[in-house]
């Protein structure tokens, strides 16, 4: 299976080499390859898409409403990213998406206290928008 192009905007390469695309649902779907699996982080049901996906109920600027289900979905995305094109998306593509990407970085071996900085360096300087999103990442896999 073809992988994401690492030169495209929004593609994060984790230390293991796994690639995950983060994006804003406000913007049109990028041209080129489509995801084979996606996580949509929204306070409401996402629109229908042609690829397999999971929805995490996650209100804007906040945290997932069910942290156990969110952790399970993030773990699934991390596992699938080894061999599939995985996309993580929310409305703006920064706060919730950045938080989820930082959690994937933790799953990939980045220490919790460094994961937000990793995602801000390799994905977007504006990733992870609130103090509680940052705390969610630093406590991910501990709670």
From TrEMBL:
This is Swiss Army Knife protein DSP-PTPase phosphatase domain-containing protein. Keywords: Hydrolase. Gene3D superfamilies: Protein tyrosine phosphatase superfamily. Residues 82-116 form the Swiss Army Knife protein DSP-PTPase phosphatase domain. Pfam families: PTP-SAK (PF22784). GO terms for molecular function: phosphatase activity. InterPro entries: Prot-tyrosine_phosphatase-like, PTP-SAK. The keyword Transport does not apply. It comes from Seinonella peptonophila.
